[in-house]
Design brief:
Chain B: Pfam families: BPD_transp_1, BPD_transp_1_N. The complex is a heterodimer. By secondary structure, chain A is an alpha+beta fold. In chain A, about 60% of the residues lie in helices and about 15% in strands. Helix content of chain B is about 80%, strand content about 0%. Chain B has a two-stranded antiparallel sheet with strand order 1-2. The chains are: A alpha+beta, B mainly alpha.
Chain lengths: ~375, ~325
């Protein structure tokens, strides 16, 4: 207790956010989570550069080609070995063997498939790739049409990682607005809104998601579909948040500082946005952060079932759809790597959310 | 208590009516109706269906009437005759389609819920009592991983491991040699040896979540004055723990009972699809994919009804279990 008092005295001049950051840094797992997430988001944002090839560049003669190992020698520099494939005459199964006579030179900052940096600046420079762009280069193996899994993983990250953020942002707005109205006005409006929320919560999530995405017209383009899925995901996500915001409003309404502001002649909007929202914003952000991984899992599951995004759009769920049957997984276990990526990202996000929640709770 | 019950029942009826309406909106949401599917299928075969025949189809399914009339016809059929409508794709009544698969879904959900309880509560209680011990860290870490791994991933990995290292086909419910056999002891054992995989897969995520909740709840209770009082009056530690704080922290047990009902039907869709289990889950997915909207709608309706009933039952169970909640109900 004494220690705490001392700590408070030294940090009197620090803002709430600095205090939160101090608290957050003490949560080691959360810090690790953040350290993992930042580079992943960076790679996803500049996916075109980090991916060795485009998402649809296919080597049709090399379906399910296994991962290549990156080699270094004084003679060739950086290189991978090529494949030679043989077809079993009885089963028609294709088997690949590493062909040490075929050497594919690999270099950094090579020219390859064209892409646009952040969707604007056209470029064809890739961080790493074969010096001759038409050569196969599969660090994580290839999928059923001979497309590089690593490239598709990196390019799919953009959708998978952003859908959580966009969806959470949408449910954040909805939750703040509706929860705020409910909590601030109280009375009959509050009652009605709470009933609606209870109603939405009483509909089971997965079947509703499935039913709604079944209702999406198949003719919609990838971008429209992406937004539709986001809306579907956030349609359910906002209810919990709205309840949370309402609870905060209800308890804050009676606080002395709100009364003081009111007596001071501050208008309703000023009280809400100038005084009440800042005092619980940190808490809300923390609870919102817990919803991001849930949305990512939601998108992955929907796309995995073939109900979310559809090819040619690439997301981790879409990639995993290719690993749906045991036969494909048995021939090409590397198809499961997008699943590993999902696990890592969701795990890191849960840690960060946990840390944020602890840091945002002033009553601990 | 009676007043509370009556009010809850009334509110439930209102909710169900609203749900049925939303369900019907969802059924009608896709552009086009069953006839457009028929036309598309015919065109794919290179045939042409005359307009008169389409109009006849529309009349047959009542698709030419206004929206509200269609809704009222549908819902009165559901309520009065238990008629959930016809599955267009299967050309069977929805009720019989779902009924065929419900038993297995039921076995799967009950078994996995028992699994979740059996694992989660002891571990959650242990984690809370020995907070920050190595065991607690291990449990917390595994819990986090359990929540982060999508169910289908786990199913795929287990199937891969089973296939690769045990040479066993993990998918499905029976080994090929028993699939068509009559029921006997061997078939039953075979079923059990296949069933544990989906039970574990379905249970893992729930277990992870429940461990976290139990631990957090128990930690909240452990340092309250009544625990100190009980300890001060000399109650043996284990008796004290089980009688007071553990009892208080068991409320999530009752909330999960509420999930059991809808779980009976939804049959853990994703896992069933991956492992090709003949539960109702894959049926729902197939219906969604072929836009067999009456089947989809029936699923949503049944599941929502079960959720609402389940929630109410678990509220009642909670009130029975926890005197504080009972008191709140009696007041309001």
């Amino acid at each position: 207790m004494l220690q705490q008092n001392a700590a408070q005295q030294t940090t009197v001049s620090q803002t709430q956010w600095r205090l939160m950051w101090r608290q957050f840094r003490r949560h080691k797992l959360a810090l690790i989570g953040l350290i993992v997430l930042v580079p992943i988001y960076f790679v996803a944002a500049f996916g075109g550069f980090f991916a060795p090839s485009g998402s649809d560049t296919a080597h049709t003669s090399l379906p399910y080609a296994p991962p290549q190992r990156l080699n270094v020698s004084t003679e060739h520099g950086l290189f991978v070995y090529g494949f030679s494939s043989t077809r079993n005459d009885e089963t028609f199964e294709q088997t690949f063997t590493v062909d040490k006579s075929k050497i594919i030179d690999v270099g950094f900052f090579v020219h390859g498939d064209e892409y646009k940096v952040l969707g604007v600046i056209p470029s064809d420079i890739h961080l790493i790739g074969p010096t001759t762009a038409s050569q196969p280069f599969f660090l994580l193996g290839a999928d059923q049409s001979g497309r590089d899994l690593l490239s598709r993983l990196i390019l799919g990250a953009r959708v998978s990682l952003s859908i959580g953020l966009v969806g959470v942002f949408a449910s954040f707005l909805l939750g703040m607005l509706i929860g705020g109205i409910s909590g601030y006005l109280g009375g009959r409006v509050d009652n009605a809104i709470q009933r609606v929320i209870e109603f939405i919560m009483s509909i089971p999530t997965l079947p509703l998601w499935m039913a709604l995405s079944a209702a999406l017209p198949g003719s919609w383009g990838p971008l429209t579909r992406y937004f539709a899925i986001t809306v579907i995901l956030s349609l359910i996500g906002w209810t919990g948040l709205a309840r949370d915001v309402r609870g905060r409003f209800l308890s804050l309404r009676e606080e002395d500082f709100v009364m003081a502001a009111r007596l001071d002649g501050v208008g309703r909007g000023g009280i809400i946005f100038g005084h009440m929202v800042p005092s619980f914003a940190s808490h809300i952000i923390a609870s919102v952060s817990m919803a991001v991984p849930r949305m990512i899992l939601g998108e992955t599951s929907l796309s995995f079932l073939g109900l979310g995004l559809q090819p040619p759009a690439v997301s981790w769920g879409v990639l995993l759809e290719g690993a749906q049957n045991i036969r494909a997984v048995a021939t090409a276990p590397w198809l499961l790597t997008p699943g590993l990526a999902v696990v890592v990202v969701v795990l890191a996000m849960n840690f960060v959310g946990d840390g944020l929640r602890d840091a945002a709770d002033p009553y601990k | 208590m009676l007043r509370f019950l009556v009010r809850r029942l009334l509110w439930m009826a209102v909710t169900l009516a609203a749900i049925s309406f939303v369900t019907f909106v969802v059924i009608k949401l896709p552009p086009g109706d069953y006839t457009s599917t028929v036309i598309a299928n015919a065109e794919a075969r290179g045939q042409d269906i005359p307009d008169s025949q389409i109009a006849e189809l529309k009349r047959h399914y009542g698709l030419d009437k206004p929206f509200m009339v269609q809704y009222l016809t549908w819902i009165s059929g559901v309520v009065l005759h238990g008629d959930l409508g016809q599955s267009f794709a299967w050309n069977q009544s929805v009720a019989s389609l779902i009924g065929n698969r419900v038993l297995l879904s039921m076995v799967l959900s009950i078994a996995s819920l028992l699994f979740v309880w059996a694992i989660a509560f002891p571990i959650g209680i242990y984690s809370a009592l020995r907070q920050y011990s190595p065991g607690d860290y291990v449990a917390s870490f595994l819990g986090f991983i359990g929540m982060a791994v999508p169910e289908f991933m786990l199913a795929l990995v287990m199937m891969y491991v089973g296939f690769r290292y045990f040479g066993q086909s993990v998918g499905g419910l029976f080994s090929p040699e028993y699939a068509d056999a009559a029921w006997n002891l061997g078939k039953l054992l075979d079923l059990v040896s296949h069933l544990w995989v989906p039970i574990v897969v379905v249970g893992v995520a729930g277990t992870a979540g429940l461990i976290r909740i139990t631990r957090a709840n128990l930690l909240d209770e452990l340092h309250k004055p009544y625990v100190a009082t009980a300890r001060a009056k000399g109650l043996p530690e284990w008796k004290l723990l089980l009688k007071y704080p553990v009892r208080m922290s068991l409320s999530p047990f009752f909330s999960t009972v509420g999930w059991l009902l809808p779980g009976l039907i939804s049959g853990e869709t994703i896992v069933s699809v991956v492992m090709s289990l003949p539960t109702s889950g894959p049926l729902l997915l197939g219906a969604v994919k072929s836009q067999d909207m009456y089947l989809v709608g029936s699923f949503v309706l049944i599941l929502s009804t079960l959720t609402v009933i389940g929630t109410m039952l678990s509220d009642l169970a909670l009130a029975w279990w926890d005197p504080r909640i009972r008191a709140r109900f009696q007041k309001g």
